[in-house]
Design brief:
The strands form two sheets. Strands 1, 2, 3, 4, 5, 8, 9, 10, 11 and 12 form a ten-stranded mixed beta sheet that branches. A two-stranded antiparallel ribbon has the order 6-7. About 35% of the residues lie in helices and about 20% in strands. The protein is α+β, with helices and mostly antiparallel strands and about 400 residues long.
Length: about 400
C-alpha cells in the first residue's frame, strides 16, 4: 500500500482558555468551520473528493458533542457527501486523527482530512463527567490519576527536580516568544475572523513573556505532600517508592487553550492527478500505552522509528507535546534527544494545549520548521491520560 502525503497542515492561533480570551465569543463548531474554509481556499480542491474526515475532540459534550467534526463540515459549506468521525484518544486525539486519515487516504487512493478542536473556555475539561474521573470507585479500579500527579511520580522515580522542571519551562516560553516575534508560525497559522469580518486573533496569545526561572520558582505546586490521600494510593501501587516529590506547578505544565487545526492528506498519485503539491509524506506512525498512567510517548516513538527503519539520530526535529515538564525531560533523557532538536519553537507549556487539536497542530509547526531549515525528517509525538500516546514520522523527500 502506498504512503500518504501531507498536502497542507494549518491551525488557528491558540487563545487563552478564559472568558477574556480572544476566541471565547466563537462556538467550537464555528472555530473549526473557519479553519476548514481556510484549507479549502488555500488548496482549491473539490470537497466532494474527500474520502473521509477524522477529527479529534476530547470533551465531547455540550457545544462539542454530536460529532462536531461532521457538524463543522456542514457549517463550512463542504459537500454533504463527505463522511466524518470525531474521536477521543485524550490528548493524542489530534495526532491520531492525522494517522487515521492517512490510512483512509491510502485505502481510497484519494484525499482525506484530519483535524481537531477544543475550546476549553466554553467546554471545560472533565465537564462530560465520565465515570473514569467522576466516580471514585471507577477511578481507583482503572488506576486513573490526575496527570500532574502521575508526572510527579515520574519525577520522583527519575530524580527530576523542581529546578529542572522550571528551567525547561522557562526555555519553552523564551523559544515560543522568539518564534512568534520572528514570524516562524506565519506560514501555517490562519487568523480567526468573526462573522462580521473582525479579526479576533492573528497570533498565539498564550505565551507568558518574561517568565523567568526565578518567577517560576515562586509558584505553588499543584499537589502538596499527601495530595489529599492520593499519595497513599500511589505508594501502594508503587511499593519501591517511599514518598512522592511534588514538582509541577501551573508554570511548568501545559496551559489550557482554545484552538483548532486541520491537515489535508492524499496519496502521491491522487495529489498529482488533482494538481496538489505535497509538503511531506508520512512514513510511519505508532501508538503505545504506559502502566500506571505514565507517559507512553517514548514507547510510541520507538515503535514509529522501528517501522520507519530510522534511529533517533536520523530525526532532524522533534515536535513533542510538553506533557508536563518532568515527562518531557524524561523523554529527552531516555531517548537521547538533544535539546537543540527538541521543541525548538516552544510547545504546550508556553503555547497552550487545546486538547483535541494539539496533535494536529504539531504537524503544522513541525512542517514549517523543517521547511524553514531545509531539513528532511521530523517526528511528532504526544501522550495523554492513562499513558496513551501516539507518534508520527514525516519525510520531506516526497
Amino acid at each position: 500500500m502506498s504512503q500518504a502525503v501531507i498536502i497542507d497542515a494549518i491551525r488557528t492561533p491558540r487563545a487563552i482558555a478564559k472568558d477574556t480570551g480572544a476566541l471565547h465569543s466563537l462556538t467550537p463548531i464555528d472555530l473549526l468551520a473557519g479553519v476548514l474554509q481556510a484549507m479549502q481556499k488555500r488548496q482549491a480542491f473539490d470537497t466532494k473528493d474527500i474520502a473521509d474526515a477524522v477529527f479529534g475532540c476530547v470533551t465531547q459534550t455540550g457545544e462539542q458533542g454530536g460529532n462536531i467534526g461532521k457538524a463543522a463540515l456542514a457549517i463550512a459549506g463542504w459537500d454533504k457527501s463527505v463522511p466524518a468521525v470525531t474521536i477521543n484518544r485524550y490528548c493524542a486525539s489530534g495526532l491520531t486523527a492525522v494517522n487515521l486519515a492517512s490510512m483512509q487516504a491510502t485505502a481510497a487512493d484519494g484525499l482525506a482530512l484530519a483535524g481537531g478542536v477544543e475550546m476549553m473556555s466554553r467546554v471545560a475539561m472533565l465537564s462530560d463527567k465520565a465515570p473514569l474521573y467522576s466516580d471514585p470507585a471507577t477511578s481507583q479500579a482503572a488506576q486513573f490519576f490526575p496527570l500532574p500527579l502521575t508526572a510527579d511520580v515520574l519525577a520522583t522515580r527519575e530524580g527530576i527536580t523542581r529546578a529542572d522542571c522550571d528551567a525547561y519551562a522557562a526555555l519553552s516560553q523564551a523559544r515560543a516568544a522568539a518564534a512568534i516575534d520572528s514570524g516562524r508560525f506565519a506560514k501555517s497559522q490562519v487568523p480567526v475572523v468573526a462573522k462580521d469580518g473582525r479579526v479576533l486573533l492573528e497570533r498565539d496569545e498564550t505565551v507568558r513573556r518574561g517568565n523567568t526561572v526565578e518567577k517560576l520558582a515562586s509558584m505553588k505546586t499543584v499537589y502538596e505532600t499527601g495530595a489529599g490521600g492520593l499519595d497513599a494510593m500511589i505508594l501502594e501501587l508503587n511499593p519501591d517508592l517511599t514518598s512522592v516529590s511534588h514538582v509541577h506547578t501551573a508554570g511548568n505544565a501545559p496551559c489550557m487553550a482554545d484552538g483548532a487545526a486541520v491537515a489535508l492528506l492524499a496519496t502521491a498519485a491522487s495529489a498529482k492527478q488533482l494538481g496538489l503539491l505535497p509538503r511531506a509524506r508520512i512514513i510511519a506512525h505508532a501508538d503505545a500505552g504506559a502502566a500506571g498512567g505514565l507517559s507512553g510517548d517514548g514507547e510510541a516513538t520507538r515503535k514509529a522509528l522501528a517501522r520507519a527503519k530510522l534511529r533517533i539520530d536520523d530525526i532532524d526535529l522533534f515536535e513533542v507535546r510538553d506533557s508536563f515538564a518532568a515527562p518531557t525531560l524524561s523523554y529527552m533523557r531516555t531517548l537521547g534527544v538533544p535539546v537543540e532538536k527538541f521543541n525548538v519553537n516552544g510547545s504546550s507549556i508556553a503555547l497552550g494545549h487545546p486538547l483535541g487539536a494539539t496533535g494536529c497542530m504539531l504537524i503544522s509547526t513541525l512542517l514549517d520548521e523543517l521547511e524553514r531549515r531545509n531539513l528532511r525528517y521530523g517526528l511528532a509525538a504526544i501522550t495523554g491520560a492513562m499513558g496513551i500516546a501516539t507518534a508520527t514520522v514525516i519525510d520531506r523527500d516526497c
